[in-house]
Amino acid sequence: MAQFKEAGRQELEKSMKEDLEKLQATASKEEAEITRKDFDGFKKLFHRFLQEKGPSVDWGMIQRPPEDSHLNKTYNTEVPLVLMNSFNTNEDTNKILQKYTHCHVKIHTFNQSR
Length: 114
Known about the structure:
The chain is mostly helical. The chain has two domains: 1-58; 64-114, no CATH class. 52% of the residues lie in helices and 9% in strands. Strands 1-2 form a two-stranded parallel ribbon. It catalyses: alpha-D-glucose 1-phosphate + UTP + H(+) = UDP-alpha-D-glucose + diphosphate. It holds the Pfam family UDPGP. InterPro entries: Nucleotide-diphossugar_trans, UDPGP_fam, UDPGP_trans. Its EC number is 2.7.7.9.
């Protein structure tokens, strides 16, 4: 059974590597080096993820924090909403955030690993 699981993990990594290489081939010359670094980092994280056994997070222990707008009103402050993007999500995130321009919360975004 352990050999079967290991073979499955290896196949997932191989498949992911192939898909990332195809995606990398579509990057412009200007973005090629940044994309390669992003993908290298992702491959390391994916490998680590596949090595873990059991659940990585006990969701029953996670408590939802108060909404930023509630904190801002209660304490007369400006607590920003900070969103971390991964590669290839920045455009989608910006489109979604346009819907929330009426909210009274400052929103900051950044790309992981940059």
